[in-house]
Amino acid sequence: MSANLTYHREGDYLIPDLTAPEDIPTGIWGMRRKRFLWQHRNGIYILI
Length: 48
What we know:
Layout: E1 7-10, E2 13-16, H1 28-40, H2 42-47
Antiparallel strand pairs: 1-2
């Protein structure tokens, strides 16, 4: 398995340039978590 990663330097550290795919489907547990945050932790829900 070979992965071609690129890095950028921040100070003395090399940080990988990672991106998540945009079209990840939200499963049933993700939807339930989102509903829980909306109902019980509105401040966190607003941040996402």
